[in-house]
Specification:
The protein is of the alpha/beta class. The protein has helices at 41-49, 76-82, 98-105, 110-119, 121-124, 140-151, 170-185, 197-202, 223-229; strands at residues 2-12, 15-26, 30-34, 56-62, 70-71, 83-86, 158-162, 189-193, 205-210, 213-217. The strands form 2 sheets. A 6-stranded mixed beta sheet has the order 6-7-8-3-9-10, with helices on both faces. Strands 2-1-4-5 form a 4-stranded antiparallel beta sheet, covered by helices on one side. Strand 4 and strand 5 form a beta hairpin. The longest helix is centred in the C-terminal third of the chain and has 16 residues, at 170-185. It is globular, with a radius of gyration of 17 Å. The structure holds adenosine-5'-triphosphate. Adenosine-5'-triphosphate binds at residues 12, 17, 35, 37-43. InterPro entries: AAA+_ATPase (IPR003593), ABC_transporter-like_ATP-bd (IPR003439), ABC_transporter-like_CS (IPR017871), ABC_transpr_LolD-like (IPR015854), P-loop_NTPase (IPR027417). One of its GO terms (molecular function) is ATP hydrolysis activity.
Length: 230
Amino acid sequence: MKIQISHIRKSYRHKEVLKDITFSAFSGTSIGILGENGCGKSTLLGILAGALKADEGEFLLEEPSLSETGDLLHRPALRSHVVGYVPQTTPLLEELSVKDNLRLWYPGGSDTLSQELKSGVLRDLQVHDFLNRQVLKLSGGMKKRVSIGCAVANHPQILILDEPGAALDLVCKQVILDYLQGFCRQGGIVIMASHEIQEIVSCSRTFILKDGTLKPYTFDGDIGKLVHAL
Ligand SMILES: Nc1ncnc2c1ncn2[C@@H]1O[C@H](COP(=O)(O)OP(=O)(O)OP(=O)(O)O)[C@@H](O)[C@H]1O
């Protein structure tokens, strides 16, 4: 599988946030998007996930096993089949329990859900411990794990995450990173926005989003140099 994102542009009224975003990624790789607050990371991820509309550009998918491919920006049905999205804010219904939220996302009903809890993604994300609790009463890390569980319910090949580890403790960040690395090992593609060193070093490739364009950046452990480049 290969994705090719080309010439994405986006303006909010007269403010041009994305000028020309172009990059590609292959199966088994994770792409980290870094950049200062307000540089446009969430806007870019929202466009790729279908939550926002681009003014121009393409998001092409090449996958021999799929009977249909094409520009995911204009193919919402195909996109919802192949792309999972974890936005910065929780997409969960706070009044419901974790289990009831998951039931809304897992298409196969209780059997699929039980299976995923026993030996699948929900076990990897360790959500059993708080399955019957109301989302309202969960910590940020617990909510993030459930949100990822919901985003991958349809077994997408591409997972887009907006700052997955923000404000989480080191253990929780690691649970999520381990899951994402397993997702890539199984042939998936991860695209994430991040301000976290732990996440940045885990990515196969990183880019800095600045002045509306992406520039490749290789983090060598020197935080001062990274801050200067942002
Ligand atoms: N709906 C909107 N209408 C107008 N301007 C917007 C809108 N959404 C975002 N912006 C502006 O677009 C720019 C990019 O915002 P965006 O949220 O994509 O940045 P970001 O890099 O994700 O920031 P952060 O790191 O703080 O999450 C900012 O200047 C923001 O104020």
